[in-house]
Specification:
- This is Histidine triad nucleotide-binding protein.
- It comes from Brachybacterium rhamnosum.
- Pfam families: HIT.
- The chain is α+β, with helices and mostly antiparallel strands.
- The chain has one domain: HIT family, subunit A (2-Layer Sandwich).
- Helix content is 23%, strand content 20%.
- It has 3 helices and 5 strands; from the N terminus they run αβββααββ.
- Strands 1-2-3-5-4 form a 5-stranded antiparallel β-sheet, with helices on one face.
- It is globular.
- The N and C termini lie far apart (28 Å).
């Protein structure tokens, strides 16, 4: 678990694809970045706007991120800003997949921001 708060130096895992994106080793279509997080478009979008908000510091999942409430709140704040800037109405769905059985495929905490269009009630 990391001990990073917004603005602190990030911890990284050299084998993690998201750590490598954060470091600039793998390109991504970034829509936001600051000292604590980056946000980039998902390669397999599930909505007209599908952006991942990724803390720069490596934590496995949202349970670990919850130990850092300031960073978790910052992820949610950035998600709202990204939705407001990149979708028509600013409404969005924020999803954290936690664990393999829940659909997490990259074990670096990340929030999915889905927006644009209407979501079915009860879906996801």
């Amino acid at each position: 678990m990391s001990s990073t708060t917004p603005g602190a130096a990030p911890h990284a895992d050299p084998d993690c694809v998201f750590c490598r994106i954060v470091a600039g080793e793998i390109p991504a279509d970034r829509v936001h970045e600051d000292d604590a997080v980056i946000a980039f478009r998902d390669l397999s979008p599930q909505a007209p706007l599908h952006v991942l908000v990724v803390p720069r510091a490596h934590s496995r999942d949202v349970r670990e991120l919850a130990a850092e409430p300031a960073l978790l709140a910052h992820v949610a704040e950035v998600a709202g800003r990204v939705a407001a800037e990149h979708s028509d109405d600013g409404d969005f769905r924020l999803i954290f997949n936690t664990g393999e059985n829940a659909g997490q495929t990259v074990f670096h905490v990340h929030a999915h921001v889905l927006a644009g269009g209407t979501f079915a009630e009860g879906a996801m």
